[in-house]
TrEMBL record, chain A:
Protein name: Xanthine dehydrogenase YagS FAD-binding subunit
Keywords from the named record: FAD, Flavoprotein, Oxidoreductase
Molecular functions (GO terms): xanthine dehydrogenase activity
PANTHER family linked: ALDEHYDE OXIDOREDUCTASE FAD-BINDING SUBUNIT PAOB, XANTHINE DEHYDROGENASE SUBUNIT C-RELATED
Residues annotated as domain FAD-binding PCMH-type: 1-223
Taxonomic superkingdom: Bacteria
A Pfam entry, by short name: FAD_binding_5
E.C. designation(s): 1.17.1.4
Automatic annotation (TrEMBL), chain B:
Pfam families xref list: Ald_Xan_dh_C, MoCoBD_1, MoCoBD_2
InterPro entries in alphabetical order: Ald_Oxase/Xan_DH_a/b (IPR000674), Ald_Oxase/Xan_DH_a/b_sf (IPR036856), Ald_Oxase/xanthine_DH-like (IPR016208), AldOxase/xan_DH_MoCoBD1 (IPR008274), AldOxase/xan_DH_MoCoBD2 (IPR046867), AldOxase/xan_DH_Mopterin-bd_sf (IPR037165), PaoC-like (IPR049648)
UniProt KW Transmembrane helix keyword: no
Domain Aldehyde oxidase/xanthine dehydrogenase a/b hammerhead: 32-138
Record-linked PANTHER family: ALDEHYDE OXIDOREDUCTASE MOLYBDENUM-BINDING SUBUNIT PAOC (PTHR11908:SF123), XANTHINE DEHYDROGENASE (PTHR11908)
Organism field: Neorhizobium huautlense
Name of the protein in question: Xanthine dehydrogenase YagR molybdenum-binding subunit
EC number(s) reported in the record: 1.17.1.4
S-adenosyl-L-methionine among keywords: no
One of the record's GO molecular function terms: xanthine dehydrogenase activity
UniProt superkingdom: Bacteria
Length: 316, 732
């Protein structure tokens, strides 16, 4: 870990301004990802802006319908919130499928969206990695890739985004609200929030330097059966090999986003039109053009099978 | 004392303290944080410095230069010691890979420097400033490739065995199996990382460390540093798990010593988690072939087991065929082990070395063979039970009750209810049950102890035995209490200090039986000293209720000790009973699993182990060993695998997020039953080891249960869902 200076910000605006004043600074929320990365010197901020005191820890109903989730709301609190459990069960289920109780107590809504990949080569500073060090090469390709992505990947990077929460947020059409260092605000649909790697895998979201997340907004509840099914090698404390977030309506229509397969939560509205036809048709379109490795080809089959189980469960 | 004739009645048979379910006597000090682990020793008057290791970024080659100038100039840095600075060092007797010194790189994350600073953070930060140039060489990292050129190692490793005519009998057998199995590299992944503090006083050094084997470490530490063994004082009273990973000297100790010398103050070094996979040792992967031929009535006529494993030059085999030499009858037999040259980190002992991966294969093969024969797998094992060493039939087992374990287990588990493969469904779960035999030899090593009787009546045991979480403190206290006729609260136990008599140490499930036997021997000496002091005839002296009695004279022990106290010291050594009699431990593992019909995820629903392992010294600590091992076996069956990058030559998943051991949610109700038995051939304690038995066979029982649930036979561990889903019913 490199030595760094540290300050606390008490408002979102102050946080964004502090970031503007300190190029290369990082916000620290729960620290459950950032600190690990700093210890390995994968992240080497010279300045940390602690945003835990910004007061953005509330979950509020929006008058015209929907829910505004403060950026600092802990994963545990969000999962346990009564409104979330009643109206957005998918989100609650995705959250409790992630990490461990201790981590969820610290992890925040914004931090979770911005957690970085779990590609093992990314975590080993001795190995070339385009995401860690732009242009150094990708050592995962041709190596151990069982956990890595099958679609949306590129020649430069085949890593996945590891969040469970983000997959549910994507299925629920959430929007990310931010404030930039100049004080301007914007709202970014989840669909656009994470970027595909292309030849710049080190750039993972559309956020600008120093842009600060203030909240995530959920639109009006969509009803339906909401199922989050996370598939993994052990029963807890493991990232998804594949996860399926689905909202299935009584008439068989619905939404599907998939985790564990791509650099972002993977959802294709065109695939959803096939839901009534079943899992095979839906996942066929969802994963069209997938480029798996020999190690992770099983994920294609696994998505289809898991989705099949989810649809069956929804039909009761 | 030499143990060379079977034990007769002795004071341990009273079983007033030994055999009782006594909670760990060190438990409270651990739960309250007073038990100090190696890194935690802290004397407020001493300024400790912190060392952080640097590991090689390549797997094979040579360091051509190192630039430490930036690291040396970094804030707080007191010293930097590199592998080039110290030059070639003598390797420890028990080490295969060189730990430190010289320019040669044998494996990834080999230690190449230590940075010592005032704080841990400063040392870690400065460590990344060292620039290293390498001349990299292409290594061999793929066992499948290397196995083609594998060789027969020297006879000291007992690579081959044979009896009868295997080839002819296998050809002639009406029912045969010829199958190949694979087990992956595994990491010890113990909770406490390797950690040491070294402090020099002139030419003498004190080392606080985390070691399973005090005397082995002491000797190899001295040899590596080029100093006299007598100059080393080593302390390791508490150890946060080892599983074999702390049997042999590790580099944290060496780096702490060099760092401390360089900066002139005590230095702490802990290995960062990623080092545990690639810097220390691991259980080597194996490729195995098993052939079994049998008559239609189930009698095995031919059994053959071959295994290939890899290691660095001078490394040893993973002895995966050993149990096959002893477990089942069959007149015609062969086993063979071959060693491939690999440039991966050193492979070495991990809990139940040999038997753990060997039984992972053999006990699937037995299940497969039983199915081919149409015989229940328990019945098939019973048909082929043997009461003698099948390769040397004149050698009987000292005591063998595998059949008892399997029968009792079948009854308790409800084995009768087992259905045909893929025939039981509960909702989305395909349910199956599996069984496997557990088998592990009972090893013994010489073990010494000193027992003091104080004027306060307190009995104090001193031995360099270690407690790696197993319960050594407690069973040693029970042994001394039984021998001296006192309550356990009148016994104090001090372990893990090289000033104490050399013990067996902890490993190979030899620790409990050997070390308590050493305490037994020392107590016999102390009893003689007490009797002598009181003028008693030692043959008819009784030690009971805190008193010593002879005829109608009774003296409180405290009084007998006198003002100066009394001491007994001895070492238990072993005659040839292990040669004349095959001594082993046995068990039956029973497992029920559910496999998700859509995703192929396996979740264990019940586990039962029934064990025959001689006298159980303490049912609480023995049960803990069993359920811990069964948990380890669950990880081994379902998720544990050090993933090898066969291009770059290292274990990629080198942290606890990537190397998936079983977590709480993976472990269901576990039941353990110990057969009520003693083995007078094993020791005066009539006990045997249980620390490894619980791991032996459990993974195969899980594999067999998965087969029973799904009809899919996987012979390549771990049994992850990608190996199953292709064979599961269509769900889409
Ligand atoms: C062992 C382990 C297992 C895990 N398993 C899972 C799992 O199964 N599923 C899963 O989904 N996750 C898992 N996680 C990841 C965990 O969910 C994330 O670490 C956590 O959500 C990150 O949140 P945080 O608040 O701690 O973020 P931090 O570590 O504080 O920050 C993460 C990033 O977000 C940035 N950031 C934080 N707040 C803001 C803001 N308001 N605006 C702009 N940028 C911001 C930081 O600068 C940093 O770059 C696991 C983590 C660990 C360590
Ligand atoms: S897949 Fe991406 S994260 Fe992994 S090594 Fe390649 S570039 Fe780095």
């Amino acid at each position: 870990m490199k030595a760094f200076t540290y300050e606390r910000a008490s408002t979102a605006e102050a946080a964004a301004q502090a970031a503007a004043k300190n190029p290369g600074a990082k916000f620290i929320a729960g620290g459950t990802n950032l600190l690990d990365l700093m210890k390995l010197e994968i992240e080497t901020p010279q300045h940390l802006i602690d945003v835990n005191g910004t007061g953005l820890d509330k979950i509020e109903a929006i008058p015209e319908g929907g829910l505004r989730i403060g950026a600092m709301v802990r994963n545990t609190d969000l999962a346990a919130n009564e409104t979330v459990r009643r109206d957005y069960g998918l989100l609650s289920r995705a959250l409790v499928a992630g990490a461990s109780g201790q981590l969820r107590n610290k992890a925040t809504t914004a931090g979770n969206l911005l957690q970085r990949t779990r590609c093992p080569y990314f975590y080993d500073p001795n190995q070339p990695c385009n995401k860690r060090q732009a242009g150094s090469g990708c050592s995962a390709i041709g190596g151990v890739t069982r956990q890595l992505g099958v679609i949306g990947t590129s020649e430069a990077c085949i890593a996945t985004h590891p969040s469970d929460m983000a997959v549910a947020m994507r299925a629920l059409d959430a929007e990310v609200e931010t404030v930039k260092s100049d004080g301007s605000t914007r709202s970014i649909p989840m669909a656009d929030f994470h970027r595909l790697p292309g030849d710049t895998p080190h750039i993972e979201t559309v956020l600008e330097d120093g842009e600060f997340i203030t909240a995530v907004v959920l639109p009006k509840p969509v009803g339906g059966k909401q199922i989050y099914r996370k598939v993994r090698d052990r029963a807890s404390y493991a990232f998804a090999l594949v996860s399926v977030a689905a909202v299935i309506q009584p008439d068989g229509r619905g939404r599907v986003a998939v985790g564990g397969v791509a650099p972002k939560p993977w959802r294709m509205e065109a695939a959803e039109a096939e839901l009534a036809k079943g899992a095979r048709a839906t996942s066929g379109i969802l994963l069209e053009g997938a480029r798996p490795t020999d190690d992770n080809r099983f994920k294609i089959d696994l998505v289809e099978r898991t989705l099949g189980a989810v649809i069956a469960e929804a039909r009761g | 004392m030499q143990f060379d004739t079977p034990a007769t009645t002795n004071p341990i048979d009273r079983m007033k303290v030994v055999g009782k379910p006594i909670h760990r006597i060190d438990g409270q000090s651990k739960t309250t944080g007073r038990a100090k682990y190696a890194y935690e020793w802290h004397d407020a008057d001493i300024a400790y410095a912190y060392g952080y290791p640097v590991g090689s970024a390549i797997a094979k080659g040579r360091i051509t230069s190192m630039d430490t100038s930036a690291a040396k100039a970094a804030p707080g840095v007191l010293a930097v010691v590199t592998t080039l600075d110290v030059g070639d060092l003598k390797k420890g007797q028990f080490n295969t890979a060189s730990l430190f010194g010289g320019s040669q790189i044998q494996h990834y994350h080999q230690a190449i420097a230590v940075v010592v600073a005032e704080t841990f953070e400063q040392a870690r930060s400065a460590a990344s400033l060292i620039k290293v140039d390498y001349a990299e060489e292409q290594g061999v990292f793929d066992l499948e490739v290397a196995a083609e050129k594998a060789v027969k190692p020297d006879e000291s490793q007992q690579p081959d065995s044979a009896a009868g005519d295997f080839d002819a009998a296998f050809r002639a057998a009406p029912v045969t199996l010829d199958a190949r199995y694979a087990t992956p590299d595994q990491s010890h992944a113990m909770m406490e990382p390797h950690a040491s503090i070294a402090a020099w006083n002139g030419d003498e050094v004190t080392l606080w460390t985390s070691s399973q084997m005090i005397d082995w470490w002491r000797g190899d530490f001295a040899q590596t540093l080029g100093i006299d063994k007598e100059k080393v004082h080593l302390m390791s009273p508490f150890i946060g798990g080892g599983f074999g990973g702390k049997l042999f000297l590790r580099v944290d100790a060496v780096l702490a010593a060099f760092g401390a010398k360089a900066c002139g103050c005590p230095v702490k070094v802990a290995l960062p988690r990623p080092f545990i996979a690639n810097n220390t040792t691991h259980r080597p992967a194996t490729l195995q072939r098993i052939r079994i031929g049998a008559e239609r009535d189930g009698k095995i006529t031919a059994i053959g087991h071959e295994s290939w494993s890899g290691n660095l030059p001078d490394g040893s085999l993973e002895t995966a065929v050993m149990q096959t030499r002893l477990l089942y009858a069959g007149e015609n037999r062969m086993t063979a082990m071959r060693l491939a040259a690999l440039d991966l980190p050193e492979g070495n002992a991990m809990r139940a070395p040999g038997e753990a991966p060997g039984l992972m294969a053999l006990e699937i093969a037995i299940d497969e063979m039983a199915e081919k024969l149409g015989i229940d797998p328990i019945e098939f094992r019973i048909i082929n039970d043997t009461q003698v060493d099948p390769e040397n039939p004149e050698r009987p087992f000292s005591h063998r009750d595998l059949i008892g374990c399997l029968k009792l287990g079948a009854e308790r588990f409800g084995w009768d209810a087992r259905k045909a493969p893929a025939a039981r469904r509960e909702g989305n779960w395909m349910i199956g049950v599996g069984v496997a035999a557990a088998f592990r030899n009972n090893l013994v090593l010489p073990s010494g102890a000193r027992v003091r009787l104080g004027s306060d009546g307190i009995v104090t045991v001193e031995t360099d035995m270690t407690d790696i979480g197993t319960g050594s403190y407690t069973i040693i206290a029970q042994t001394a209490a039984e021998m001296m006729g006192v309550n356990i609260d009148k016994v104090a136990v001090q372990l893990g200090d090289s000033r104490f008599p050399v013990s067996a140490g902890s490993g190979g499930q030899f620790g409990a039986n050997s070390s308590t036997s050493g305490v037994y021997a020392a107590c016999i000496k102390l009893r003689e000293a007490v009797a002598r002091k009181l003028g008693f005839n030692s043959a008819d002296v009784v030690f009971e209720d805190g008193n010593v009695r002879s005829g109608n004279r009774t003296v409180p022990l405290a009084e007998a000790a006198g003002a100066d106290g009394l001491v007994g010291e001895d070492t238990m050594t072993w005659g040839d009973l292990t040669e004349t009699h095959q001594q082993s431990t046995f068990g039956g593992h029973f497992v029920e699993v559910g496999v998700d019909v859509a995703t192929g995820e396996t979740r264990i629903r019940r586990m039962l182990a029934v064990c025959a392992a001689g006298r159980i010294l303490n049912p609480i600590t023995a049960r803990s060993q069993m359920i811990g091992a069964m948990t380890m076996g669950a990880g081994g069956a379902l998720s544990e695998e050090l993933a090898v990058d066969t291009r770059r030559g290292f274990f990629v998943n080198h942290d606890l997020a990537g190397y998936e051991i079983a977590v709480h949610a993976d472990i269901p109700h576990q039941e353990v039953i110990f057969m009520d038995e003693t083995d007078p051939y094993s020791s005066p304690m009539k006990a045997k080891g249980v620390g490894e038995l619980g791991l032996c066979g459990v993974a195969a029982a899980i594999a067999n249960a998965i087969y029973n649930a799904t009809g899919v036979r996987v012979r390549d561990y771990p049994i992850t869902l990608d190996k199953l889903i292709g064979g599961l019913p269509d769900v889409a």
